[in-house]
Amino acid sequence: xxxxxxxxxxxxxxxxxxxxxxxxxxxxxxxxxxxxxxxxxxxxxxxxxxxxxxxxxxxxxxxxxxxxxxxxxxxxxxxxxxxxxxxxxxxxxxxxxxxxxxxxxxxxxxxxxxxxxxxxxxxxxxxxxxxxxxxxxxxxxxxxxxxxxxxxxxxxxxxxxxxxxxxxxxxxxxxxxxxxxxxxxxxxxxxxxxxxxxxxxxxxxxxxxxxxxxxxxxxxxxxxxxxxxxxxxxxxxxxxxxxxxxxxxxxxxxxxxxxxxxxxxxxxxxxxxxxxxxxxxxxxxxxxxxxxxxxxxxxxxxxxxxxxxxxxxxxxxxxxxxxxxxxxxxxxxxxxxxxxxxxxxxxxxxxxxxxxxxxxxxxxxxxxxxxxxxxxxxxxxxxxxxxxxxxxxxxxxxxxxxxxxxxxxxxxxxxxxxxxxxxxxxxxx
Length: 429
Hints:
By secondary structure, this protein is an alpha/beta fold. Helices cover about 35% and strands about 25% of the residues. The protein contains 14 helices and 19 strands. The chain has an eight-stranded parallel barrel with strand order 5-6-8-9-10-11-12-18, surrounded by six helices. Strands 14-13-17-16-15 form a five-stranded antiparallel beta sheet. The protein has a two-stranded antiparallel ribbon with strand order 1-2. Helix 7 (about 180-190) crosses helix 8 (about 190-210) and helix 13 (about 385-395) packs parallel to helix 14. The radius of gyration is 24 Å and the shape is globular.
């Protein structure tokens, strides 16, 4: 694991000045962050610098307090890195001291990445070093228990070559439509259909050389809650003796009595007992048809985690991490749709329109406003290195097993820089 520091761009900053300040080669900073236009930085943008510490030459009149404030660290941290400083009140001009940038450590964690079969192969190759599991989305179940085929063979083999465990994903997405409650009901209540599905799952796992199965059934009728649990028990009984991993994706609940079609049939305690991992879909507070806000505000994510760890073994939990943002047109009108935007695209957009990026401390998320060519105001919420680091620290705080990204189809370099600085990724193959 390599340490890192996160620099927030201020007026007048350039890659040259940032590189000089931290004693790092310009090209390394450009390459690490994959900056498409390094000559055009945005005020409020984050730049990740991969280093544990930097040297600082004390200027006349500087104190440890002023130096610490300038580098957004503490006097205690500086003293810890400079045991030769006997008296913190006495430092001299020209003296070189070490400024530490300790990165919070998570230890070894498991990392899942969802991917669509059309993922850019360079993006996949760049991401695989950071993954434990690659969940290929998705086999749609049919009302007769058969599975709609997907072109997954290349992804499975590529994953295995990189020691990434390929996971088969099944969903109750109706072909050509979306998640369907009636389809789930058929699967969960018709034993003939269900047995056919179990046979087809097992056959596909073997033929395609998958390492396990992820069940992502959403909008299941509340009355099918125990039927869903029983379906998972059957899957576990059939697959676990053969060494397959079993995972489920769960809606972000804050209590066992939470109402709503998305939540009620997802029995946290039962899933935590039956399966090997649960993926908590801790995102979509800000969503396509909803009012503007952060996609995964940290206070809301924590509410879900506090409940989850009270009923599920914490090491079985993979916290969901969104890999996207949204661009809303203002004023928000119910029924209007926000535009999905990648985190890299968000910064490039801010640069094009001359916006300054702000940071919401409560949500721990960046955002900015701009006006389009028609004079309409927009607000964009997305993720940067700060928000990624803040959410990853929850893994340690709640003793979680790891994280799961939706999706890895868009490459966000700063995410992987932050992750690799904080954690060792477990490989199970």
